[in-house]
Amino acid sequence: MKSKITQSLVERAPKPEPGKSVLYADTEMRGFYLIVTPTKRSFYVQSLVNGRQVRTKLGDHPAMDAKQARDAARQTLVGMRGGVNPNEERRRARARGITLREALDLHLAAKPLSPRTKDDYRYNCEQYLADWLDRPLAELGGDRSGVRDRHRRITERHGAPSADNAFRIFRAVYNRGLREHPDLPPNPCGNVDYHGLRRRKVDAPTDRLKAWGKAVLGLHPVRRDLHLFMVLTGMRRTSACEARASDLDLASGRLHVPKPKGGSTRAFDLPLSGPLADLLGHRVAENPRLHRKSPWLFPAESKSGHVAEVAQHELDGLTGHALRHTFATLAVQAGVPLLELKYLLNHAASNVTMGYIHVGPEHLRKHQETASRYILEQLGLEHEPGQWPPRLKE
């Protein structure tokens, strides 16, 4: 419909039926339009931009009146006929405006990350990159030498692991912003010289293992059983500490782990060897007496209600993730095949073939038994079926 777009037309144009719209083309300025819908009255312009028809919105009434829209249309159409695409300009402006903090929120909202992982992301950004959080990614991406220099300064002040970890997080967050706004500069972490730290090697010779086995028996029963559970399963600290009695099925010899590293999509059933079943059965029997029906298998008088800190000076550094290394090493020495070990450790599939293989707890239980017997032997401990705790070998 053709008509001069006036304030009177904008205010009095009849509403169309639901789901429909009416377009008014201005008779005095080619390419200037008013579109009326049941809920809005909006101003648009349309013109060829480098050989392509482009339509862009100027604004809505009443925030913009007819005179303001006409002035904006005149200026915008001049630019469009000169080759400027206002839609692209707006997109670039949004890209220039997104900050590191906004990209971090975008990244954390888009991925099914555990609360612990999200806290780690925020901690690293706030601890090492706090002055960057409200700076635009475009500004950071354009300062490649400054990004490299920040990595170097964090290395000098806090160590290589902290620097590498902070910038792996920054790299991931920047990439998420780049996916949202492709006009951003390339990821500046391409100019960062990572230290490429190797995985920590845990040295646990026979005499150290036997000293550990003797020392662990002298701990508080809950902490004693937690450390033995971790060395007999290789389970990560958080999953072990947060193990619940409600996830334990002693009848079928399984412990369900609902939220391991990687979140609920990586949930699995841990097969229990005889020693592990006796250990957890003992914990279930003891917990009501010691902790008034705590839901946790390893309860403590803490804010969370369970053991959270596993450091133990009596154990000479063999705690936490070091026990995962120890379990893997001793399980291989015991003869557990690498494929089955991957499943016992709940490692993600590392190749296409592993993605096709689905191994159940029943198959894995015999390998868990093999590992448990060998590990207890290396610790100098003797386990009698149906009894817990184990005792030192004479």
From TrEMBL:
<dbReference type="GO" id="GO:0015074">
    <property type="term" value="P:DNA integration"/>
</dbReference>
<dbReference type="InterPro" id="IPR038488">
    <property type="entry name" value="Integrase_DNA-bd_sf"/>
</dbReference>
<comment type="similarity">
    <text>Belongs to the 'phage' integrase family.</text>
</comment>
<dbReference type="InterPro" id="IPR025166">
    <property type="entry name" value="Integrase_DNA_bind_dom"/>
</dbReference>
<feature type="domain" description="Tyr recombinase">
    <location>
        <begin position="199"/>
        <end position="369"/>
    </location>
</feature>
<keyword id="KW-0229">DNA integration</keyword>
<dbReference type="GO" id="GO:0006310">
    <property type="term" value="P:DNA recombination"/>
</dbReference>
<dbReference type="Pfam" id="PF00589">
    <property type="entry name" value="Phage_integrase"/>
</dbReference>
<protein>
    <submittedName>
        <fullName>Site-specific recombinase XerD</fullName>
    </submittedName>
</protein>
<dbReference type="InterPro" id="IPR002104">
    <property type="entry name" value="Integrase_catalytic"/>
</dbReference>
<dbReference type="InterPro" id="IPR011010">
    <property type="entry name" value="DNA_brk_join_enz"/>
</dbReference>
<dbReference type="GO" id="GO:0003677">
    <property type="term" value="F:DNA binding"/>
</dbReference>
<dbReference type="InterPro" id="IPR013762">
    <property type="entry name" value="Integrase-like_cat_sf"/>
</dbReference>
<keyword id="KW-0233">DNA recombination</keyword>
<dbReference type="InterPro" id="IPR050808">
    <property type="entry name" value="Phage_Integrase"/>
</dbReference>
<dbReference type="Pfam" id="PF13356">
    <property type="entry name" value="Arm-DNA-bind_3"/>
</dbReference>
